Amino acid sequence: MYGKAPTNSPAAALGSAPAGVYRVDALRELLAVFEDDQTVRGLAPDLVAIGRLQGIRGVIATAPSHHPDCDFVSRVFLPAVGIPEDPVTGGAQTALAPFWSRRLGRDRLVGYQASARGGLVRTRVRGDRVELTGRAVTVIDGTLMSSTRRSEG
What we know:
Blueprint: E1 2-4, H1 11-14, E2 20-24, E3 29-33, H2 37-41, H3 47-51, E4 58-64, E5 72-78, E6 83-86, H4 90-104, E7 108-113, E8 119-126, E9 129-133
Parallel strand pairs: 3-4, 5-7
Antiparallel strand pairs: 1-2, 2-3, 4-5, 5-6, 7-8, 8-9
């Protein structure tokens, strides 16, 4: 799931040097691990520089939490796909949950995404699957219809 990070490290783009950087191949994102949750909360990233990192969609910044209500914090920057900072993203949690589960020795964790809106996501690692629970807000509701038409001949 995790690969070697590219040589063009996101440290300058994030404005702070992470303790480790890993490539999350399934998401085409980098996981930048910091030692302190306040560092992650205080990041002032250069989004243009993140968007220029080769071969990735964005960066997930994370650290263990010192708050009793959660196990880890994160922020997700995806400027290459038009999302400067994702407020709360389930996709990133699918990488964060196994990462922190191995380090903390527990399958059930609570992550806090420390964006301006912020949000808690409860995770449970079950083999190669991650279950996510939490509160969500519906931002769009609709029905997709196929535009494929058969040619009549």
